[in-house]
Every structure is written in structure tokens, then in C-alpha cells.
Amino acid sequence: MKTPQKYSGWCLRHGGLMSKNILVIHGPNLNLLGKREPKIYGKCTLEDINGALKKEAKKLGASLRIFQANLEGEIVNIIQEQSEEWADAIVINPAAYTHTSVAIRDCLAAVRIPAVEVHISNVFGREEFRHKSFIAPVAAGGVYGFGKESYILGLQAALYTLKNGKK
Ligand code: DQA
Q1: Residue among 30, 49, 97, 121 to mutate when testing ligand 1 (max atoms within 8 A of CB)
Q2: Which CATH architecture best describes the domain 5-163?
Q3: Closest ligand 1 atom to the C-alpha of 93?
Q4: Is 97 annotated in the active site?
Q5: pLDDT per 10-residue tile (average), the chain, 167 residues
Q6: CB count, 10 Å around CB of 95?
Q7: Pocket perturbation via mutation, ligand 1, pick of 98, 104, 122 by most ligand atoms within 8 A of CB
Q8: What single-letter DSSP state applies at residue 62?
Q9: Residues in contact with 97: Cβ distance below 8 Å, sequence separation at least 6, in sequence order
Q10: 3-31: per-residue pLDDT in tens?
Q11: What is the pLDDT of residue 131?
């Protein structure tokens, strides 16, 4: 079964010594962006965000693989496989799993590569249950509250983290 959606057409390879491989993961319900609670998440679709990420990656000389998955175990599998085979760093919006998932937290702690946590909304200005992140303690850092730009800043932060040798 091939439920996790891999945007294979958007996998960019630039080659060259400086090229870094960045795995981007969008968690549950982010496939609904554009239609989903636009007052909170804006009108940008996931395609818009991925397009902006591709553009930025090209500018920065990074290669991207982008996945969206609604299931926790699929996210764990993607992180394990891609970090083993290909990725140098991860940009992840774990969406609702941010606040619940020990499995994704443990997976990010287990792999050898750093992760940057991103959120479109300012999770700390919202309901109290969103103030807790299981991911933050094992991430290199996080970006939240800047809409689509959170992802762009997250990509820049992932490259910064690699350059500065931090997991
Ligand atoms: C989110 C914030 C989460 O609390 C929520 O469950 C999401 C999206 C964000 O990007 O703002 O699905 O991760």
C-alpha cells in the first residue's frame, strides 16, 4: 500500500559539493490546506508551500524530497528510511502529532540527522493542548507562526544547522 504521498516530481537534485539533501514532511490534514480553517492557516495550498520550498531550495542549492502523510506510523517509516538512505536533515510539520506522538519523537531522537520543527500557526497563542510539543526537545529548533514562511525559514534553519554541525 502506498498511502504516503511522495511528490516525486518535486524531488530536486542539484549535485555539487555543497548540495544538501533535505527531507520535508507534512503531517496529518496538511493536505487540506487552502480549504482547512483558512482564518488560522491562510489560503495557501500545500502545492503553494511546496512550490515556494522548491524555489528556495534551488536558490540555496539544496535537494528536496517532500512527503505528506496522515498516519503516524507512515511518518515514522519515512523518517527511518529517508534518514538512512538519503537525507542530511529534516524539516517537519508534525501537525496534530506534535502534541501527542511519542513515536515520532523517539524516531527523531533515534536517527543521526537533525530536524527542524515548523508550524504555520502560532501554536502558543492557541488552545492550551497545542502548547505542548513532544517534538521540540529532540529538534534542533523550531519556527512557528509565520504561515507559509515558517517552512522557508525552517529550510534555512535546517541548512544553518548542518553548516554549524549541530544534530
Ligand atoms: C499546525 C498546528 C497544530 O496544532 C495543528 O494540529 C496542525 C497544524 C500548524 O502548522 O500550525 O494541524 O502544525
Answers
A1: 121
A2: 3-Layer(aba) Sandwich (3.40)
A3: 13
A4: no
A5: 42 52 98 97 97 98 98 98 97 98 98 98 98 98 98 98 87
A6: 20
A7: 98
A8: E
A9: 27, 28, 72, 75, 104, 134
A10: 455 443 333 343 345 589 999 999 999 99
A11: 98
